Amino acid sequence: MVESSVLGFPRIGAFRELKKNTEAYWAGKIGADQLLAVGKEIREKNWKLQKEAGVDIIPSNDFSFYDQVLDLSVLFNVIPERYTKFDLPQLDVLFAMGRGLQRKATETTKAVDVTALEMVKWFDSNYHYVRPTFSHSTQFKLNGQKPVDEYLEAKALGIETRPVLVGPVSYLYLGKPDKDSLDLKPISLLEKILPVYTEILKKLAEAGAKEVQIDEPTLVLDLPEEVQAAFKTAYETLAKAEGLPKLILTTYFGDVRPNLSAIKGLPVAGFHFDFVRCPEQLDDAIALVSDKQTLSVGVVDGRNIWKNDYAQSIEFVKKAIEKLGADKVVVSTSSSLLHTPVDLENEKKLDAEIKNWFSFATQKLAEVVTIAKAVSGEDVSAALEANAAAIKSRKESDLTNDEAVKARMAKIDKSLSTRKSPFPERLAKQKAKYNLPLFPTTTIGSFPQTKDIRINRNKFVKGEITAEQYEQFINSEIEKVVRFQEEVGLDVLVHGEPERNDMVQYFGEQLKGYAFTTNGWVQSYGSRYVRPPIIVGDVSRPKAMSVKESVYAQSLTKKPMKGMLTGPVTCLRWSFPRNDVSQKVQALQLSLALRDEVNDLEAAGVTVIQVDEPAIREGLPLRAGQERSDYLEWAAESFRVATSGVRDDTQIHSHFCYSDLDPNHIKALDADVVSIEFSKKDDPKYIQEFANYPNHIGLGLFDIHSPRIPSKEEFVARIGEIMKVYPADKFWVNPDCGLKTRGWEETRASLTNMVEAAKVFREKY
Ligand SMILES: Nc1nc2c(c(=O)[nH]1)N[C@@H](CNc1ccc(C(=O)N[C@@H](CCC(=O)N[C@@H](CCC(=O)N[C@@H](CCC(=O)O)C(=O)O)C(=O)O)C(=O)O)cc1)CN2
Ligand SMILES: [Zn+2]
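That is the input. Now the predicted structure with 39S docked in place:
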C-alpha cells in the first residue's frame, strides 16, 4: 500500500480565525490565553480534517502564530538582544521581532521601542518569512519545545503526526548578519547550531515521533560551495547522534539536480521532491535513493488551485514505483499547502463550470489519498472518471480563448515597448513641467485602509448601500487623503487607494479572463492575507479601471497627483496563474490591458503614473540560466509595453519591495522614478550598488509594517548616511511601501517627520 502525505496545511482557519484573534490580541481586546486557545482549535480541526480524508502522513508544527521561520528563531534563541531587554512574555517577543513594538511605560511594564526584523519573500512565493538575524553574540539554546508540544497535542487526539522543521542549512542560509556583525557568515554557525537541532529532534523522538520532515528548500537554489558542503556536515552529524527520529530531507519549489552531489549518500531515511515544478528530475531522484531510503513524490500542487490531472499523476507515480517498489514511494503534495486557500466548498458565488476546475487545500487532501489508492490498485474509478471529465471541460471551454486578445498579442513589437525619447530628454521636459524641489517627497500609494473603509465596502458588496453612496464615501476618503498630504507638505500626491480591496484583486475583478473567490484567503505574512484572483482565460480590459478616482483626486489639488496601477508581472504573480499557457503570454496580455489604462490616465490629465512591480524580483527563476534571462527580458518588456505609450513629459514611476533587488534588472524597465523598500538594508555595499542607478530613485526611509514612528532626527541620520554615497539631485524621499496597514496616527506623525527631514537637506544642498 503506497502511503499519502501532506507537507503542511494552511493555518489561518477556514474563516480567518487566526487573523481576527491575533489582531484582537495586539489591540488588547483579548488575552494571550484566548489567542493560544484559537491556535489549538485550528490545529485540531486541521489534523482531524486530514485524518478523516485518509491522509497517512499528517504534518505537525506546520502551525504558527506568525511565521514558521520566526518560530524557529525563537525556539533556538536567535533573538537579537534588543528584543530581550524589556522582560516581555515569549509570545510578545515573537511578535516584536515580527512587527516591531513601541509602547509607553505603565506602572508595571517598561517602555518598549524596537523595530521589526527584516521580512523577505519565501522563495518565489507571495509568502514572507522573518529573516533570521545572527550576530557574533548569538547563543543557541532551546527556548521551550513548540514542535514537541504540538506533536503531543495531536497524539492526545489520537492522531500520529510527522513534525516539520526547517533544516539547519536552509535556516542559516536564509538568514543574515545583524548590523553589529556584518562580517559574519551565517553558514559558519553550522557547528554551533547542530546541538540545538539534535536536542529538539531527540525530544521529538522521546515524545514518540518516528519521523521528522526536515525542510531544505534552499536545495533548489544555486548554492555557494561552502553551503553545499554544509549538508554533509549537518546530516552526518545528526546521524551520529543517538535516539533521533528518521529524517525525510524535503525540498520544494524547484529543480534539485545541480545540488544532487551535496545530498547523495546522506544518512537520511528519505527524500521529497517537487515534481509539479520540475518533473524532469524524476530519474535523478530515483537514482539518488538507496535501497534503504524512500522517495516522497510531490505531484499535488501546493502553489496553485487547479484540479490535479489524475491520469497524469498516476502514470508519473507508477514510474517511481516500478523502479523503487511500492513500499519505498509516498504520494505527496509538492510543497506545503500553506499557499492555497482552505476550502473550495466555502465558495458560494463561483460559476459551477469554473469551480469544477479548482481544488483548494481541503480538496487536495482527497487528491493525494486518491492517487495513493489508485497506484496501490484500489478501485477509485468513479473519482478518476469525474476527474477526467473536469480536466476535459476546462481544456475545451470557450471561456479560456479570446481571439481578439490573441490577434493583439501577435502585433506586439519593439515600437510598443520603447519610450519616445531616452531618459535625459524626458527628464528635462518633466523638470520643466513639474518644477519639483530637491529631495521631492511622496508616498507609495495607499493610505490607511481603516475599519470604516472596509465596512463600507462590505456593505456595498452586500447591496446594503448603493453604488452612488459608495462612490460618495470613496470620494470623501480621497478628499481627506489629499487635504492631509497638502497639510503635511508632500510634493507629489496620491489618492490613497481607498476603493481597492487589494492592489491585484481590485484589477483582477475588473478584467475579463479572471475569476475570483469570496473566501479564498492565503497568508501573505503575519496577520495579512490575500485572495489571489484566478486567471482562467485570455485577459483583456473591458473598460477603464482607475481613471475616475485619479481624475477626481487630481481635480482637488494643484500639486501633481500620481495615477496608481499594478504592473503586469505583479498582477500575474499575485494571481493564481493558468498552467496551460506560459507566464510570458499571461504577462503580456496583462501589459496590453494596462497600456490602455496608462494611456487613458494620461489623456484624462493624470500625467504622473506609478505602475507598481513589487513582485518583479519574486518572479525571477530561482536559478541562473536560460529561464532566468528569458524572464528578465519578458518581465521588463511587459512593463515597458504597459508604460511606453505616453508622452515624454508624462512621468512614469514604479515601486518594488520585499526583496534584494539587482539595480540592473530595474534599469531595464526604464521608469523615470523608482521607489524601493530600503529601511532594513544595512549593508553599505547594497546602498552603493543603487547609487549607480541611472534614473531617479527613492530609497524607502521607514518600515511600514511596524506601527513605530521614526523621529525627524532618525530620518535625517538615515538620509545623511545615504548621501555619503548618493547623488542628491536624483534622490526622492518616501516610505518603504504603501501605508494601508497602518493607522492614521502613526501615518501622520511619521510622514510629518519625514517631510521635515527632507527640508533639512533641501537647505543643505
Ligand atoms: N496581493 C498582494 N500581495 C502582496 C501585497 C499586497 O498588497 N497585495 N503586499 C505585500 C505584503 N503583503 C500584504 C498582503 C495583504 C495585505 C492586506 O492588507 N490584507 C488585508 C486584506 C485586504 C483585502 O482583501 N481586504 C478586503 C476585505 C476586508 C475584510 O476583511 N472585510 C471584512 C468586512 C469588514 C470588516 O468588518 O472589517 C470581511 O470580509 O469580513 C477589503 O478591503 O474589501 C488583510 O489581511 O487585512 C497587506 C500586505 C506583498 N504581497
Ligand atoms: Zn511595496
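The first strand starts at residue 3 and ends at 5.
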